[in-house]
Design a protein that fits this description.
Length: about 260
């Protein structure tokens, strides 16, 4: 059974259709890279998966559970959306860290907020807090940030901020980790830092959906590539096949930009 099933997703902004009958599936441990020109619908698709945008048509399932069905009102209740987001961890293009919190506090925050909603929180507050802090420290250590936990975002480089954001996304142990152009705001050296972490996650069989303009990463690390154009999935498949033998003319034109010169 696929871990993620996306079926016939459509999304409109006013009268403009920005996602046009999007369907794909994702297996456990698979890394899917979504590529395409600006405005092709990549980020909107990712936001629909995380319920930051609500699709107008279609179905989204995780581990066989229907999280969203446009024809089923019960799956569209706003009160249930936050629970559904827990299946996905999202790493934003611009980090979206809270500037008033340290790196450690940023990673701990979401899990602490969820813990406070549990009936046993008051009785076990100290133990729960210590466990959350220990997990956050371990995640930041895995990101190579053991010596930066007490720093605030403005004291960190862009690459370090993005690694904090990855640790934060992992803290809730999501089924699927999603990245929205995670290196587009970084210079080449810092880009390398973040891509190294992402490659390590891929080697650990972390299930990931990655919107990226890093073609080498999409070709060499992902095991499935989706090419989007004008709201459609125009082509998808094995990275080597898509990059070396694209079938669609628009795919060929897009990839040619990265091979010229």
């Amino acid at each position: 059974m696929p871990i993620l099933e996306v079926q016939h997703i459509r999304k409109y902004f006013d009268h403009t259709e920005v996602l046009k009958d999007i369907s794909f599936s994702l297996e456990q441990g698979q890394v899917v890279s979504i590529i395409g020109s600006s405005g092709s619908g990549k980020t909107t698709l990712l936001r629909c998966l995380n319920f930051l945008e609500r699709p107008d048509q279609g179905v989204i399932r995780v581990n066989g559970e229907t999280l969203f069905d446009a024809n089923d009102r019960a799956t569209r209740q706003e009160s249930e959306i936050r629970k559904k987001r827990l299946h996905f961890g999202l790493v934003f293009q611009s980090f979206n860290l809270f500037p008033q919190y340290t790196a450690l506090q940023n990673v701990m925050l979401a899990k602490e907020l969820l813990a406070k909603e549990q009936p046993d929180y008051k009785a076990n507050r100290r133990t729960i807090h210590e466990a959350i802090e220990q997990q956050a420290r371990e995640l930041l250590g895995q990101m190579g940030l053991s010596d930066r936990m007490a720093n605030y975002p403005h004291q960190l480089s862009g690459g370090q901020c993005q690694r904090v954001a990855i640790a934060r996304a992992l803290a809730l142990q999501p089924d699927i980790l999603c990245f929205d152009e995670p290196t587009s705001a970084l210079d080449p050296e810092l880009t390398g830092e973040v891509l190294k972490v992402m490659k390590e996650l891929a080697e650990k069989n972390t299930t990931m959906v990655i919107v990226t303009h890093e073609m080498a990463f999409a070709r060499d690390v992902a095991n499935h590539v989706i090419f989007m154009d004008d709201g459609h999935i125009l082509e998808q498949g094995d990275p080597i096949e898509v990059f070396e033998n694209p079938k669609e003319e628009r795919t060929k034109q897009f990839l040619a930009r990265f091979t010229q010169g």
